[in-house]
Write a structure and sequence with these properties.
This protein is 40% helix and 21% strand. It has 308 residues and is an alpha/beta fold. The protein starts with a helix and ends in a 7-residue tail after the last helix.
């Protein structure tokens, strides 16, 4: 018979990707945790983890089982709170996203609305391929990225192979983000030709530096001046210091970025569809659902038309 304790041990091991680290977090001996998970695998009749010298990863059966395990432990926690007067359990949630201010706004709102004495949340602004890998391996429960006519076929194939589903949020026309002091800031729109004299700022994609994984559309366009960066703070500093530009959704957060950065429409026949990814076979936790609610609310506040 599968016990609630076994499920909690299994979830912690899946979150850590390491038996040793999970045992440390659970304050039990590593052999005891290993035996508990082996007993659990015997009960369910399936191998839940692939074990390597570098750690553990979930098998396909393990991914599916994790979804059910999370649901059971969440419901058990709610019962304990309601009928046994126990304090709420430690809330957990991890999000991986491309560099979008609205994703950060939603995360802030989610944290502020979380009614818990203890929580452990993670927000990773990271590279496109790593977002997919994070969600695939359940390092993150949700990922935020975009699809376009150019990258859609490649990314959708990778998502399918990873067991992930893409859920559209909204479709946006490309805008450039520039300093409010940039000579182009007052224009109704700009063309690619007008950008030729300014440095193009893009987010570096590491080993997976393919055009298809670029955070910016029109990645195959030749730029005379190009600078790659790794974080959002640096890209905004270079917009101000070098009059550089990047291409994104057009949603600028004054709360996070101040009034120094503005968005100007880019006159091109392109569009990008921003959405969230998650395992197709897993039900989201309540915390992830709360984040999605806040994400949709934040986007609506910017006047963006949501995808039905």
């Amino acid at each position: 018979m599968v016990t609630l304790q076994q499920l909690k041990y299994f979830i912690e091991a899946a979150n850590c990707g390491s038996i040793n680290k999970a045992a440390e977090n659970l304050f039990i001996a590593q052999p005891s945790l290993s035996n508990a998970i082996k007993d659990l695998e015997g009960e369910v009749g399936a191998e839940l983890f692939t074990r390597t010298p570098k750690g553990i990863t979930l098998t396909q059966d393990g991914v599916e089982f994790l979804g059910y395990a999370r649901q059971v432990t969440e419901q058990a926690s709610l019962l304990e709170q309601r009928y046994l007067s126990k304090k709420p359990s430690r809330r957990m949630c991890a999000i991986s996203t491309q560099h979008y201010a609205f994703a950060v706004n939603a995360f802030v709102n989610m944290v502020e609305k979380t009614n818990a004495d203890e929580y452990e949340f993670t927000l990773r602004e990271t590279r496109t391929h790593e977002i997919i890998e994070d969600v695939k391996t359940l390092r993150s429960e949700l990922g935020i990225l975009y699809l376009s006519p150019f990258n859609r076929r490649v990314l959708e194939k990778l998502l399918r192979e990873s067991g992930l589903a893409f859920h559209p949020l909204f479709t946006a026309k490309p805008h450039i983000f520039i300093s409010a002091a940039n000579p182009l800031a007052q224009k109704e729109y700009v063309t690619l030709e007008e950008l030729d004299d300014y440095p193009c700022l893009t987010f570096e994609q590491g080993e997976n530096n393919s055009f298809y994984f670029s955070e910016e559309i029109l990645s195959t366009e030749y730029r005379r001046k190009s600078i790659r960066v790794c974080d959002r703070a640096t890209i905004f500093n270079l917009m101000i210091g070098l009059n550089g530009y990047t291409i994104s959704t057009g949603i600028v957060s004054a709360d996070l970025n101040g009034d120094n950065i503005v968005a100007v429409p880019l006159k091109v026949d392109e569009s990008l569809e921003v959405g969230w990814i998650a395992h197709g076979s897993l039900q989201l936790t309540q915390q992830a659902e709360l984040y999605l609610e806040e994400l949709k609310r934040v986007v609506k506040e910017y006047g963006v038309h949501m995808t039905e």
